[in-house]
Amino acid sequence: MPDKTGAGGALAFTPVIGIEIHIQLKTKSKVFCSCSADYTNDEPNSHICPVCMGLPGSMPVLNKTVVQQGMLAGMALNCTVQPTTYFFRKSYYYPDLPKGYQITQSDLPIAANGWLDIKDDAGNPKRIRINRLHLEEDVGKLHHSAADGRLEGAESSWVDYNRSGLPLAEIVSEPDVSSAYEAVEYVTMLRRRVRYVGASDVDLEKGMMRFDANVSVKCSDGRWGRRVEVKNMNSFRALERAIEYEIKRQSKILADGGEVLQETRHWNDVKGTTTASRVKEFYRKFIVEPDLPPLVVLPQWVEEVRATLPEMPNEKALRYVREMGLSEIDAAVLTDSIDVARYFEACVAAGANPLRAGNWVRTEVLRAVNDRQIGVKDLAVKPDALAELIRRIDDGRLSTTGAKNVFEVMLEGSSLSLDEAVRKSGAVEGGVGADALENLVRATFAANPDVIEEIRSGKDTKGKKIKFLQGLVMRETKGQARPDEVVAAIETLLKSE
Amino acid sequence: MQLYELGVREIAEGIREKKFSALEVFDECLHRTLACEGKMSALITTTADAGRAHARRVDEQIAKGGALGLLAGVPVILKDNICTHGIRTTAGSRILGRWAPPYSATVWELLSSAGAVLLGKSNMDEFAMGNTCGTSAFGPTANPWDVSRVPGGSSGGSAASVAAGYVPFALGSDTGGSIRQPASYCGIYGLKPTYGLVSRYGLIAYGSSLDQIGPFARSVEDMDLLMHVLARHDPKDSTSVDKSEIDFTRREKSRQPEKPLKGKRVALVKEFRDFTLDPPIADAMKRLIRIFEETGADIVEVSLPTVARYAVACYYAIAASEAHTNLARFDGVRYGYTVTTASDLKDMFEEVRSKGFGAEVKSRIIAGTCLTEPVRSEEYYVAATRVRTLIAEEFRKAFENVDCILQPVTPSLPAKIGEADEDAMKGYESDLYTLPVNMAGLPGFSFCTGYSQSGLPVGLQLVGPRWSDKNLLDMGFELEKILGTPKIAQRGN
């Protein structure tokens, strides 16, 4: 988005942004050894071996699942799987890098030439091209003894190699992104699709998705700023703020007649600024990894993996709108996660009305899942039970409120049958019995003689008073009566008296 | 005959048949070792206690009548770049400090599960960079045929200890001749197997695409037995190849015992004619050609122009490029030599590496760093890898019509200790006959042809196509009958 600054009149600045994303691929073990990939909450350096510690003499063995997950992620991003690819040693020195080099596919990757179609700031469709997705290994984690956990001022630093050797996919976009908004759109869609195919859990809080951005700006007078690499963003919000900050910073430099230097800058989330990296960037040197033969992916394997691809979220959402008549917004919510979409589809397959099922999943089911911090798969109410509940609303056996009470009861005990849940919830099937309803209506009439009088005198032309009475009765039944039955009972009594 | 003079097979059989115990063998080998070490310094670490305990366990097993491995009770020495669980492994460098690996190399797992007993870890050029043992941080090793001379390198300690009778066999590693050249200098057999035939897992790497572990022994029969144990596919080494169809224990019977090599096509390299050889080596070549002709082999010529012209330069570019990455891990953070006086991280790395590495290693790290820098990589490292493909192709074509190539191992006999290190480039050139073999991943078999007038052993080598290791040993077996079995050197004691 062009940004106008006051300096020198009306100069306009066009940002040019490329995004590099690291995602942790979902596997049981690390990429080159059999150490467990899940070390959450475990002691530092409890998931290490000679290979991921880079001990002298150790050698990497490629985990096949990593290749498969890389292919899946690539396919989710419309990339082409490359038949023969290589691994390289990327050399630099840092304590978290145990071998002094990182094994990475770099620019001869497992997948290349993909794209994602997003919406730009104005809501128009825009294609972001993806240069490549390549496989590589993660490094260890540094812990500094300083109070704020940063290197500056720390008396000592500790290294935890549990993360060393976790499988990563680095996804490099072409510089097609033009704003912080587009960047967030792009990474949101990318995250959703990668999670859809099961290639990664992309849990941002666990650091499974990390962002770097290459930002430069072009001035309307023809001047270009150099490309600045901004590192260290671990959330969508940080990515958005860092890009916004960097566009402003670079635009101002150009507006003031200065030059933007090519450099690496680090995002400081607390201060909301980027600062030039103090460490001079090393030459990143590459040689072929002699300990790993070229990775040859046979077409048959590619097809086997492709056959496991699910319908992707955009296509799913379009189908919900087209075939089931859902609104675009509902369809988008239902397809955000594949587990939710699968739950919804199972519900419909079990005979539930799609619109009502969509509504229930979008509201009650998602709320229950969020309240409990669980996955929709782990919900006590299974899709077929929800479908049956919805059917009972449709055929008038349960009121909506009654059904919600039943749903709440079922959430607590998965072993309950629907009928048991209905009994336990106190909901009355078929709403409130006709006799009971009549009695309630009579009582309500008796308590509100002035209202009855107004209706009978013909003043209630808009039916507001009848609605008022209906509301009172509904409240008495705790919502379990069916609203249309209540109105019918009121009208019958009005006529009869 | 003393126990230390016996070969692998004789010791294994003798122990199995209870002619002597494993402990007796070990103690006699240890005694021989200690008698020689003062003059020779072939070992960095002697594992007397652990070895005796291991030998006792073998004897207990024999007493119980349990199943025995092929090498039960046979003492062995490993080059000190082969990781041994719990036993200091230095790679001849100061930078590893007192590092004792928490795991063992696959080759040591294979040998020890076959019953072999470790006697020590042998001296070597630092990180296998050198051909004299002179770059070792632990000082030089002497040649047991003349203790004023080098044993060769980088596996000089292993070769010298087998030649002097410390043990009947040892393992070395060969990146550009480091098994074949010391075997030749010390007058024993040394095989650099086809790349991928023996697992490299646990070998402290120098040039990973060139390194290969192989055995030293004093008879071809023993070499067969050792290759039978060592040539196993290893899932922990992704470059290891399953060649279980090769049976190293079965010797092909020659159809005509009087002309055992009849029909074999033995090639000489045309381009090598232009290079001068020391007279004893030139004489050995002539003698071998005559022997081959007399035993019915055809002597032919092959042309390897790319090999002769470019192999040395390309080898050093590739070896140094890989080495500088392999040695990047030694930063003092996790293991080995470290310093506590550094003011920051960069200081720490600089100090550890400046003090930890010797001069030869540093020069190759610097070379590798320069050759792979983004601005130069295409011109040097990448170009060298392309030429390497041509070299492999040139060999492949040559081997379409011949069984093996007969060539020297080195152009000269072992130099005096100290002299060899003076002219580094001369050292590099002397590798011409050995390192193209690594560039193409071929097997190279170094054998002793006899002794010079000054009493130094004179070796030559046979080079074959990939996976022809067994064929080379078969030819070596026939040659051994004619040339005689290598003797144990007696000047180190």
CATH class of the domain at 3-256 and 443-483 in chain B: Alpha Beta
Total domain count of chain A = 3
Provide the helix percentage of chain A.
25-40%
Mean pLDDT of chain B: 95
Structural class category of chain A: alpha+beta
Question: Can you give a write-up of this model?
Answer:
Chain A is of the alpha+beta class. Chain A has 3 domains: 297 residues, no CATH class; 115 residues, no CATH class; 63 residues, Arc Repressor Mutant, subunit A. In chain A, strands 1, 2, 3, 7, 8, 11, 12, 13, 14 and 15 form a 10-stranded mixed sheet that branches. In chain A, α1 packs across α2 and α12 packs across α14. The radius of gyration of chain A is 30 Å and the shape is elongated. With 493 residues, chain B is of the alpha/beta class. In chain B, 39% of the residues lie in helices and 12% in strands. In chain B, α2 runs antiparallel to α3, α9 packs across α11 and α9 packs across α12. The model of chain B has no long low-confidence stretch (mean pLDDT 95). Chains A and B meet through β16 of A and α9 and α12 of B.
Output the keywords.
heterodimer, A: 497 residues, alpha+beta, Arc Repressor Mutant, subunit A, 3 domains, ten-stranded mixed beta sheet, 15 helices, 17 strands, elongated, B: 493 residues, alpha/beta, Amidase signature (AS) enzymes, globular
Topology summary:
The complex is a heterodimer of chains A (497) and B (493).
Chain A: E1 3-4, E2 12-24, H1 64-76, E3 80-81, E4 84-85, E5 88-91, E6 101-104, E7 111-119, E8 125-137, E9 141-144, E10 157-160, E11 167-173, H2 180-196, E12 209-219, E13 228-233, H3 236-255, E14 263-268, E15 273-276, E16 285-288, E17 295-296, H4 299-307, H5 313-324, H6 328-334, H7 338-349, H8 354-372, H9 383-394, H10 400-412, H11 418-425, H12 434-447, H13 449-456, H14 464-476, H15 483-496
Parallel strand pairs in A: 13-14
Antiparallel strand pairs in A: 1-2, 2-11, 2-12, 3-7, 4-17, 5-6, 5-16, 7-8, 8-11, 9-10, 12-13, 14-15
Helix pairs in contact in A: 1-2, 2-3, 5-6, 6-8, 7-8, 7-9, 9-10, 10-11, 12-14, 12-15, 14-15
Chain B: H1 8-16, H2 22-40, E1 43-46, H3 48-64, E2 75-79, H4 106-113, E3 117-122, H5 156-163, E4 169-173, H6 180-186, E5 189-192, E6 213-217, H7 220-230, E7 265-269, H8 279-294, E8 298-302, H9 305-326, H10 345-356, H11 359-371, H12 374-398, E9 404-408, H13 424-429, H14 435-439, E10 444-451, E11 457-463, H15 469-483
